[in-house]
Amino acid sequence: MSHESRFLCRLDELPDGGSRGLLREGFEDRLCVVRQGDEVFVWLNDCPHEHRPLEYRQDQFLSGDGGHIVCYAHSAHFDIRSGHCFAGPCTGAHLLKVPAEVRDGEVWISADLPSVFD
Ligand code: FES
């Protein structure tokens, strides 16, 4: 990752096997953050189907078994690692990835977030 990164949160602020919304703006969290052990996956909180936020309530982005990301609006299912939509109305589409890395127990992300309009 380039040197242009910004601190997101501490790793231990993320529930292992769970998700959190971060970078709150107004009533919306801009990011969907999923932790699996020492790995963290960060996605723009923007469903490619109708560009709505994904979560069904704050910090709740995952299926009941924690196995994948689900968009609450129309039940699109996304792979946590690849962001690939494998079921639902936008099958074949992708979430937008925010490059992230864990350093010394801290999660850092790219300073520039991807744009839905690129
Ligand atoms: S807005 Fe996400 S499935 Fe429709």
Automatic annotation (TrEMBL):
Q: Can the keyword Iron be found in this entry's annotation?
A: yes
Q: Name any one GO molecular function.
A: metal ion binding
Coiled-coil blocks: none
Query: Where does the Rieske domain lie?
Result: 6-109
Transit peptide is among the record's keywords: no
Query: What keyword terms does UniProt attach to this protein?
Result: 2Fe-2S, Iron, Iron-sulfur, Metal-binding
Superkingdom as given in the UniProt entry: Bacteria
What parts of the sequence cross the membrane?
A: none
Name of the protein: Nitrite reductase/ring-hydroxylating ferredoxin subunit
Organism per entry = Sphaerotilus hippei
